Amino acid sequence: MSDSYSLLILPGDGIGPEVMVEVVKIIDWFQTHRGMSFEVTQDLVGGAAYDEHGSPCADETLEKALSVDAVLLGAVGGPQYDSLDFSVKPERGLLRLRKELDLFANLRPAQCFDALADFSSLKREVVAGLDILIVRELTSGVYFGEPRGIHADDNNPDNEGGRVGVNTQRYTSGEIRRVARSAFDLAGQRSGRVCSMEKANVMESGILWREEVQWVHDNEYPDIELSHMYADNGAMQLVRNPRQFDVIVTDNLFGDILSDAAAMLTGSLGMLPSASLGAKMENGRPRAMYEPVHGSAPDIAGQGKANPIACILSFAMALRYSFDRGDAAADLERAVERVLADGVRTADLMGPDGGTPVSTAEMGDRIVAALAAG
Ligand code: NAI
Ligand code: MG
C-alpha cells in the first residue's frame, strides 16, 4: 500500500471544529516528521452544512466521503437546530453517511489509561490496564427490523389502553457473517480472542447469531479463540472483571448498551474514540468513518475547554485500521498516555489529584511535543 492517504475531515458543530484543529496539528506532525502524506479535504456536516446548503450532508459531501480512504468527523448538533424538521436535523447528516457508506461494524474501544484509573466508577485494581474492543453491528437488528410501529390492539379487550408497540429483531446470516469477520480480523491484530454475545437462550435471532459466528470461525478463522456468552451475563462480567475480554462482538441493541457501559469503566466522555467500518474497497481498505463518542457539547463550545483526546484517538484508530500504520497509532496513543501521566488535564479530567489545567489547544500542543520527544 502506498504511503499516501486520503482523508475527508468533517468538523461539524459545537466543539467539533475545536477538537479537529488539534487533530490537524497531529496530522501535520506525521507529515513533517514521519514522511507520511495525507491528502486532506475539509467539508461541512451537521448544522454547519444545513446553514450553508439547507441539508446536513450535501450530495457533494457524500460523494467525497465515498471517494476517500477514511472520513474523520467531529460532532454535530446544537440547541439552535433543535426546532428543525426531523429530515434536516444535524444527526441526519451522520446517519446518511453511515448508511451510504454501509458502515456495519462499529468499533468502540474501552481503554483505561493508568493516569485516569481513579476516574473509573470501578476500583483501580479492576480497570487498570484495561484494553478491550466492542464491535457492535450497526446497520440491522431491532432498530431497523420490520414490522415496526404503534397500532391499535383491536382484538384484545383485556389490553388496558388498547395499543401495541412493535419492533422486530431481524438478522440475516450474511449480516452476521460480515460483522463476525470484522471482529475476527481485529482480534487477529490483537490478542486473538473473540467473545460473541447474544441471547440464544430466548431469541431465535440469537441462535442464528451464535451459529453463524461459529461457522465463520470454523471455516475462516480457526486460529482465533472464540467463546459465546449470553449478553446479560456479558453485562455482569464487564462490570465484574472486564479484563477477561479482548474483542467482543454483538448485535446492534446489545452493542449500544454494552458499549456505553464499558465506556464508563474508563472515565470521561472526552476520552472515547470510535470507528465505523464497512466493506473493503478496491484498494483493500475498508470504508471507514472515525469520530469521538461525545457530541457537540454546546455547554462548553467556544471556550477552549473541550478535551481533544477522543478525536485524537479516533485519528489513531484511522492510522491503525484504514492506513495500516499500527506503529504510528501506537506512538500517538503512547504520547497521549505520557501527557496524562504528566498530570496534564483539560477541565473534564480534573480530579482530586489536581494536575496542570490546560486548554484544548494546549492539550494538542502537549501531545505533539510528546510525539516529538519520541
Ligand atoms: P455531549 O456529548 O455533547 O455532552 C455531554 C456532556 O459531556 C456535556 O456536559 C459536555 O460538556 C461534556 N463533554 C462532551 N464532550 C466533551 C469533551 N470532548 N471534553 C469535555 N467535555 C465534554 O452530549 P449532549 O449534551 O447530550 O448533546 C449535545 C449535542 O450533541 C446535541 O445536539 C446532541 O444531539 C449532539 N450529539 C451528537 C453526537 C455526535 O455527533 N456523534 C453524539 C451525541 C450527541
Ligand atoms: Mg448509546
List keywords for this structure.
374 residues; alpha/beta; Isopropylmalate Dehydrogenase; two-stranded antiparallel sheet; 14 strands; globular; binds 1,4-dihydronicotinamide adenine dinucleotide; binds magnesium ion; 3-isopropylmalate dehydrogenase; amino-acid biosynthesis
The shape is globular
CATH homologous superfamily heading of the largest domain: Isopropylmalate Dehydrogenase
Helix fraction bin: 25-40%
Architecture (CATH level 2) name of the largest domain: 3-Layer(aba) Sandwich
Q: Treating each run of at least 4 consecutive H or I residues as one helix, how many helices?
A: 12
The bound ligands are: 1,4-dihydronicotinamide adenine dinucleotide, magnesium ion
The radius of gyration computed from the alpha-carbon positions, rounded to a whole number of angstroms, is 21 Å
- The helix/strand class is alpha/beta
What's the β-strand tally? Answer: 14
| Order of SSEs | EHEHHEHEHEEEHEHEHEHEEHHEEH
N- to C-terminal distance:
25 Å
Largest sheet: 10 strands, mixed
Record the SSE blueprint.
Layout lengths: L3 E9 L3 H19 L2 E6 L4 H7 L5 H9 L2 E6 L14 H11 L4 E7 L12 H4 L3 E7 L7 E8 L10 E6 L4 H16 L4 E6 L5 H17 L4 E6 H10 L6 E4 L1 H12 L9 E8 L5 E7 L16 H13 L4 H16 L2 E2 L10 E2 L2 H14 L1
Parallel strand pairs: 1-2, 1-3, 3-12, 5-10, 8-9, 8-10, 13-14
Antiparallel strand pairs: 4-5, 4-11, 6-7, 11-12
Helix pairs in contact: 1-10, 1-12, 6-7, 8-9, 10-11, 11-12
